[in-house]
Amino acid sequence: MQKGYTLYWLLPALIVAIIYPILTDNVMLRETIFLILLSITLSVSLNIIMGYTGYVSFGHIVYYGIGAYTSFYLMYAYKLNLVVSILIGGVFASLVAFILGQAVLSLRGAIFAIATIGINEAVKSLISNIPFLGSAMGLYFDFSIYENYGGAIKAIWLSYYLMGILTVFSVVSAYCIKKSKFGLGLFSIREDQDASSVLGIKTKLYKSIAYAISAFFPAIAGGIFAFKSGNIEPSGAFNLVKSIEMIVMVMLGGYGSIAGSALGALIYEKINGVLVVLPYVKDLHLAVSGLILLIIVQFAPGGIVGLLTKYFKNLRKVLE
Amino acid sequence: MKKLFVFLMVIVFAMLTTKAFARDSILIGFTTSLTGKLNAESKAQLQGLQMWANNVNKNGGIYVKSLGKKLPVSLKYYDDESNKERVQQLYVRLINNDKVDFLISPYSSDLTATAAIIAQQYGKIIISTGAAADDIFAKGFSVVYQMYTPASRYLTGALDMLKKHDPKAKKVAIIYEQSEFAKAVCDAAKAYAQKNGFNVVMFEAYTPNTTDFSAFLNKMSSSKPDALIGGGHFADGETLAKQVYEQKIPLKLISLIVAPAVPKFKEIGEAALYVTAPSQWEPEVSYSQENAKKLKLSYYGPSVKWFTDTYINTYHQEPGYHAAGGFASALVIQKAIEETGTLDSNKIKQALDRMNIVTFYGQIKFAQGKYHGLQIGHEMVYLQWLKSDNKLVKEIVWPTLAANAKLVFPYSTKFKK
């Protein structure tokens, strides 16, 4: 696959955005950028399975939840270090995704989408019944846990740094996968699974690995967010609405494109973030953001990247 | 041009300085779920808060002694979309950008716990108005204060009521919906029952949307319990009460969460009769100056009648406990400001720590020490469906401070008619 320039502008832009609140010590900006980074991570990682292989995972938030629960519990019960806990959470969610992938990735289209919703709901229900995970009421951190990280203020900054690193890492990983032979295999599965199988691509293995990788980043993001928020419960950790938002972000930016997923997440989060504090649309902000999305999708079915490359052919290399 | 520029600069500077130095209102900040799954409860809570602000401002504001004048109040709120991610962002905004004086929590325990982290981080007092979880208050927060009776005491009153009316009653059956809240409530009720010498003869969960309880009721009947407690949401609670009635199970007491507190419950007719339910607050409660006197406590704020009538006049519907909780949470801030005469967070905190008052919403007192901020004054009120003029009406029967009718005991009396 042709080498593009996405990373040459996307990475510096990301790094500047991440560093800016740190240099200016602007907490409000930190919160906003934290949410944008979280959305970019979710969108870019969903794109690995959805954009590269064409499998629309409707319940992808399940891995966010699994990662969040695993790391939260390790910190809560065993006082394990944050970084170690979230890494274990990430690896565990990937493992679960790999195993579940064996079962669900043989399904296609709508059936696969429905199966992924089923997995999310089943895991949510399972966790709601496990007493040591706090059942349906979830678990709450002792506020003093933040003392181990230099106090709550520093701990929240720490979660911001970690989210920044994760986002950069997820973007670079998604790029490397896309440009690798493995990525080429995934794209061939997306275009024609049967044909690629005939050509000798181990489609099942490829899909399973892609699914496991796409589960890793949301799981870590979930761990970081649960640490920052100080509590966790099934309805928030496995919130199906978030899954749908992830799909919207990918579609909005451009299916299959890293720059597209990142831009889609940025725009979606920004629209929501701005509207939510605008006093004029206080009760209507969701309707307004829905309308904006509708207009974008209506006039640019290939997402923003699709629209841009349609009119500006030269941008193709920049956005690939 | 240069003159105009200087003139404009002066105006801008003047505006900025006035804003910085002259305090013109008391700003209360919070997020509310205008959208998302918690929308209905949040709306009622918001209406309660807005009614409080309108009432305060109609009377010229709150008198702040240290400033020597009355200050009006204003509410600054954003939609949190029932979403935890949004909550932290918005509470940081309320504290840093909007510079609110005091915070009120969003609705629900998990959103509150998330907001509490931010409030604690900045040392801003936050009144948790719609959160019943106990756990938040065992986690070392020093600026979070709870208005609701915690989940652990939702159904314990039913057991106290049973003990008071029949000290010999020992067997209790607990049947509850497998949902977040019902499970927390019933786990706590089970522990309380065992601690108080009751024998929990059945403790079983049913899946949400269960429409046939016969298997549960058959099993329960064989163990001959004195009381049935539990429930979950409206539809299942209503069905459960109906099937207990149809099978004529000779219970002494039946107390279910949620369903019997909904006015629509009376549609099941005779089956609703004598069923009891806990509620944070009901328009029928009788908290008053006189009742407060009996407890040697001071009464603060409007009467129950004033609150109920004004709410009905304003919003054309009867207020529920979400609305009452919203109003009352702002009322405690008002009381603390009036008492200390300042807006200083530390002094307000001290006032909240020693607060022990009765309001239209009930008694309010916060725990100190390990469970700092946990609500220990407010009791769940128990309503019972009774007959008046051949019509089903709900009356408050427990605790005595709030009661306006006597509990009809045992429940099975109705089968003997």
TrEMBL record, chain A:
It holds the Pfam family BPD_transp_2. Its main location: membrane. It is a multi-pass membrane protein. It comes from Desulfurella amilsii. GO terms for molecular function: branched-chain amino acid transmembrane transporter activity. The chain crosses the membrane at residues 6-23, 35-55, 61-78, 90-119, 125-143, 155-177, 209-227, 247-268, 288-308. Keywords: Cell membrane, Membrane, Transmembrane, Transmembrane helix. This is Branched-chain amino acid transport system permease protein LivM. GO terms for cellular component: plasma membrane. PANTHER family: HIGH-AFFINITY BRANCHED-CHAIN AMINO ACID TRANSPORT PROTEIN BRAE, HIGH-AFFINITY BRANCHED-CHAIN AMINO ACID TRANSPORT SYSTEM PERMEASE. It is found in: Cell membrane. CDD domains: TM_PBP1_LivM_like.
UniProtKB/TrEMBL annotation, chain B:
This is Branched-chain amino acid ABC transporter, amino acid-binding protein. Belongs to the leucine-binding protein family. Keywords: Signal. It comes from Desulfurella amilsii. Residues 1-22 form the signal peptide. Residues 26-373 form the Leucine-binding protein domain. InterPro entries: BCAA_transport, Leu-bd, Peripla_BP_I. It comes from the Bacteria. PANTHER family: ABC TRANSPORTER SUBSTRATE-BINDING PROTEIN, LEUCINE-SPECIFIC-BINDING PROTEIN. Gene3D superfamilies: 3.40.50.2300.
